[in-house]
Amino acid sequence: MLGRIRREAEKITINGSGIQGAQSISAQYDSVGGSPLRNLGINEIQYAPEGPQTATLQLDTLLTHTLSSGGYGYTSVDTMQNFTGDVPFSGIIDYGTENLYFTQAYLETYSVSCSIGEIPQSSTTSVIFGDLGTGLFDSWNTGTFLDPISETVPDLNVTSYNSMDVNLDEFSTNRMTSFSVDIATPRVPIYVTNNDKPTKVVPGTPIEVNVNFSLDIDDYKIKNMRFVPEQTVFKDTTITLKKNNSDVELLRYSFNNMLLTSESFQAEVDSNAGINFNLRSFILR
Amino acid sequence: MATVFYDKAVVEVRLGDQKEQLLASDCSLNYTASQQPLYAIGTKGSLGQFPSAARAGDVSFSFLTSITGNFFGYKGNIINTLASGIKNNVTNGSETSGVEIKFAGVSGSGFLTSYGLGVAANSVSSSNASFSFFGSGDQLPFSGRLAPADGVVIDSDGVEGKLATGIAHGRYTDLDNFATVLTDPADTANVFGAEYSLSLNYNPIYKVGQEFPATCLYTNAQESVTITEDVFNSGLPFEGLGNQQLTLTVSGLPAIIPGLVTPVIHYPGMEIGISGYKIVSTSMSAGLDDIVRTQKTLTAAY
Question: With a CB-CB cutoff of 8 Å, which residues 42-71 of chain A face chain B?
């Protein structure tokens, strides 16, 4: 009989933490031998790995659950934000009765976004330098930290657009309608001969941070595009996500000396005039 | 008109009674007849152009480093066997004969003048070779005409698509014997890749009365291997160390043979013996978004 697997039979666990509020999960690898070897007088098709084998993991979650602050060796209550540093992670994706394992994953992008009427959502992409697939891996540690049986379930703490703080001085007369924070954490794998996995993954530097805001404007003044150096704008930005309908702070994104890099103006017949602007900064590790 | 697509442009090397079709990715053949204009006092134009040297040619090609062959006891490919044989040729008075090279219907007897290979992490290894064609006696450097030639299947088992188990690959090549090892404090390098090159020199002997050489003598050879790693040795020796010997072994994907107790079979790699080498240079360099990589070059002469 044909069956199907729906969301109630799917689960992702990362370093022993069950990820809650997941909206979409995508894991993918490409065989590096996808093109045949070619030669003059080619008379047979042969394949060989051409380049390192890696996989990618994409995970989108609503920020509805948080870890205990400071627990399990984490500094952030958002599981995925803890991997913007140089620590890799492993995990399991359960679907039906099958398990998809992955090891030695490194976060490459971490984004948080929210618009009016939404629950803030985080999106991450990670590159997997270890293994991805079903079956047993030599490197798979079945100790308690990675054992899904003993997984940690984060607490229910729903963040919301109506209980967040943004400390940008544009908002007294202009209304923010959405924001996004995008953090890119580059990775540099180091491969040696006689090994298909990197001997080391160097955390690249600098980390690029982009913060984007959309405003319904009243008296917002767009800067002169030739603003360097007279009107160069640097801003400190802090976005605080709180528990829904409360003042309990859950997550804080704070960046100093962000450079205003772009502004755009939109006007349409059936909507308010709006401004989008981007702040960018680079953080050295 | 002969229209030959690349799938019919086989490069084949015959050494004695053994031959191998190489997995060449490119090949070029050049044939030259040197002509020199002559001038004389009293005439305005040239008297004509006259031959100033014997006709000669060369063939150079790059190829995937195949290691499926077994030629005269050497595992690897026929070019490696040829190179090893020539550079260690000290017993027969250095008189040498060429090997037959065929390329898309054109063939000749060539002398290996250079050979090299590169191997890097997670990459298919590539080699290159060049031959000079002097001709011999009444034999022209090249003969034949451009014509299609079918390639042969290396390991014919009727399977359309399969893994290339006979191709050297950085994933399976162990170069740890080339790693720089330092003491106090102890440090051992990670090896990222190697580039090997060998050049061989010949002296074709011409005599009056015929265009092509009567014989050809092998004179000498130099080889070098450059190792890319991550440890810099500032103690570069002035005189080097005596009687140093290393073997560069490149290996390919293991074969899976169902039914065996241990179904994964690792075939022996191709070996290049480097005798009496000296480390002649070390360097280190850095670029953006990468680690500092070091290089050292070993040379040997024969």
Answer: 42-53
